[in-house]
Write a structure and sequence with these properties.
It is a single chain. 54% of the residues lie in helices and 11% in strands. By secondary structure, it is an alpha/beta fold. Among the domains are: 82 residues, Gyrase A, domain 2 (2-Layer Sandwich), CATH 3.30.1360.70; 86 residues, no CATH class; 173 residues, Isoleucyl-tRNA Synthetase, Domain 1. It is globular. The two termini are 32 Å apart. The structure holds arginine. The site of arginine has 9 residues, from loops. It catalyses: tRNA(Arg) + L-arginine + ATP = L-arginyl-tRNA(Arg) + AMP + diphosphate. GO terms for molecular function: arginine-tRNA ligase activity; ATP binding. One of its GO terms (biological process) is arginyl-tRNA aminoacylation.
Length: 562
Amino acid sequence: MDYKLQFAQCLTNLLSEHLTKQQVYELIEVPKYASYGDFAFPCFTLAKTFRKSPALIAKEIAEKLDDSLFEKVEAKGAYVNVLLNKTTVSKQVIETVLQQGNHYGDMSLGEGKTIVLDLSSPNIAKPFSMGHLRSTVIGNAIANIAEKCGYKAVRINHLGDWGTQFGKLIAAYKRWGNDEKIKENPIKELFNLYVKFHQEAETNEQLEMEGRAWFKKLEDGDEEAYRLWKWFRDESLKDFSRIYELLGVSFDSYNGEAFYNDKMDRMVHLLEEHGILSESDGAMVVRLDEKELPPCLIKKSDGATLYATRDLAAALYRYETYQFAKALYVVGHEQSLHFQQVFLLLEKLGFAWAKTMVHVPFGLILKDGKKMSTRKGRVILLEDVLKEAIALAEQNIAAKNPNLENKDEIARQVGVGAVIFYDLKHERINNIEFSLEDMLKFEGETGPYVQYTYARAGSILRNAKTVVTSDIHGLEDEESWEIAKLLAAFPNVIQKAYEHLDPSLIAKYVIHLAQAFNSYYAHTKILVEDEGLNSRLALVRATTIVLQEGLRLLGIGAPERM
Ligand code: ARG
């Protein structure tokens, strides 16, 4: 349904000796004013070849261009402007969407290829913060989009379940821990211990040493240390699963940092073999001076391995397990140096696939303009936010539609949808100011607005007593034309979202489609019994299909009623 491509084809038929279809395609613009046309082809670059003025060339092309696809072809200055034929195009688009259903927009770009995504990856024994929400929902949406493009997507939750912080946590537990309290409310209690540890450590140097010693024990396989770690991990996972269930996100693997403990020696050997490991103050590092990056720390002087070492081992393991065509790391931009180091190191080891690894950074969620920090306790808990959002959705339902069937599930879809959409509508790389109030608005550019539009369109279809048939006429009015153009653009939007690895393109798209639909609804008497009825219903049906699929790609449900 790429009409730009079809216009490019018509032009290429005339210009094939001089420009390829691709070149033509890239030259085509969308005019500033809709009245100029749907597309414009600038003739400046052809002036040299034809030794004529661009305006004359435009005139000649306009005269020769003839296709039932266009309602009007016109040379305006150096441009050939075309207006698509509303009747032909809207009929084609609606028919295609109805025929293909939720497969409309499927692509074969990634056929036979696997893409692995490292996403979510919260840290054990710490609350699941709003920060981890971004990685989870952005990563999940990118995975959905990649699947729509034909890739097999593997979602990996690289749990932060190893590292010096567990030494500290065990040390804190040994000093102040209370089993009963931990069992009652594991993450909260463990987190309290962790915060207390850092507060006390400011005045008590002994603590840091204890923490380091416990981590060393843990790495050496000490039984008590291991048992406590395992307990903390299991309890945390129970808490996380609840959140993932609410969010409707699942993973193919929960292999976290600890999973690579027995795979790091091999990595260290590889680095040695390549002669790139060097010593620095007793620690082992790889120097990355050639790219002006700070050295990458592989082993501390006490032999403890690091975050980067585990990421190196994980990358190799993933390549050997999945033979990925691409590996994405959906992690905040503050870790960008870390990934530069890791990717460069893998390249130095001669792995050709290192070039296919991409850090997909995203902005922070700020609270009053400041970064949230688990350590300082300035943190908003995702689970609280989700619960509040769901409660608000419940209130709305109770007020507007108290007899709604399946109320609880719908409230979940709407509340959670609000939170996910709020995140995804922001360009991935931008920081977001946390505002529960904005997040939970059920009008404006929000998830619930799109969901509501979907449900409204669905109710029109239910109220129409006829079944939509394939006997569709084209539609000519401005409002349906807006919808038809947007429907036609959907595959392109998906592809762009994939290329930019940015779900916000889809979030903005569904908002536009919902707005176009609501304006259509306000202007048109859809259910009047006349010869246009079936075509109007077909347009409504096509809109519901694309809205639902757009929301699905974002990881958001579309309730039939709300
Ligand atoms: N657990 C880390 C954090 O919360 C994120 C891990 C990202 N993934 C990775 N392979 N390093 O900051």
